[in-house]
Design goal:
7 helices, about 160 residues, globular, 4-stranded parallel β-sheet, alpha/beta
Length: about 160
């Protein structure tokens, strides 16, 4: 009999082009897990991908859904970017209150590398593709709070079967 893995919350943290969606899709297949990606949903709904109030409402709804899924024993991957420490802390503490381990995957890349990836992604197109210029990325970098080693230490490690 196949035993389901313990449910966990997986947060993907990084700037646009860092590889969050690529990693999320891989993990969702491997674990399996429910993957919630605001960019894809906004695009599918025909919403403006830069409509911050809409994105905020969607992320709030996703978080409610994620908590319900975690209570039901399902692993959930959130692809929100998690640019701020306060948001990461809030999700970690809330999930732990449900008795659920929480992983944080920080995907870092240089601004030049992010620009190359974003340009390639824009050329390819596809669902949920958000056009991000170098100028916009430079603005995002000013607001992004990268997790340090102390913060990363507050999160759980992946289970042994997913450690490489």
């Amino acid at each position: 009999m196949d035993v389901s893995p313990e449910p966990r919350l997986i947060l993907l943290c990084g700037l646009p082009g860092s590889g969050k969606t690529t990693l999320a899709k891989c993990l969702a297949r491997e674990i399996p897990a429910v993957r919630l990606c605001p960019d894809e949903w906004l695009a599918d709904l025909g919403a403006d991908l830069f409509d911050e109030p809409m994105r905020g409402r969607l992320e709030e709804r996703f978080w409610t859904q994620a908590q319900d899924l975690l209570r039901l024993g399902q692993t959930v991957i959130l692809e929100f970017g998690f640019w701020g420490r306060a948001e990461r802390d809030e999700k970690r503490l809330s999930a732990r209150a449900l008795g659920v381990p929480v992983e944080l995957h920080y995907l870092a890349a240089s601004v030049d590398e992010l620009c190359c990836r974003l340009e390639a992604r824009s050329r390819e197109g596809g669902p949920g593709t958000v056009p991000v210029s170098r100028e916009l990325l430079d603005e995002y970098v000013k607001f992004f709070q990268a997790p340090d080693d102390d913060e990363l230490g507050l999160f759980d490690s992946p289970p042994p079967e997913r450690r490489g």
